[in-house]
């Protein structure tokens, strides 16, 4: 179960990182 959860968390974390980078670029563009 733990391994399965880790597998689901892997893509989620990567997606969060991409969103964070996109948000940073947007904030920079706004500035």
UniProtKB/TrEMBL annotation:
Record flagged with keyword Cytoplasm: yes
Keywords of this entry: Cytoplasm, GTP-binding, Hydrolase, Nucleotide-binding
UniProt GO molecular function: GTP binding; GTPase activity
An example Gene Ontology CC term for this record: cytosol
Keyword RNA-binding on entry: no
Cited InterPro entries: GNL1-like
Protein name: Uncharacterized protein
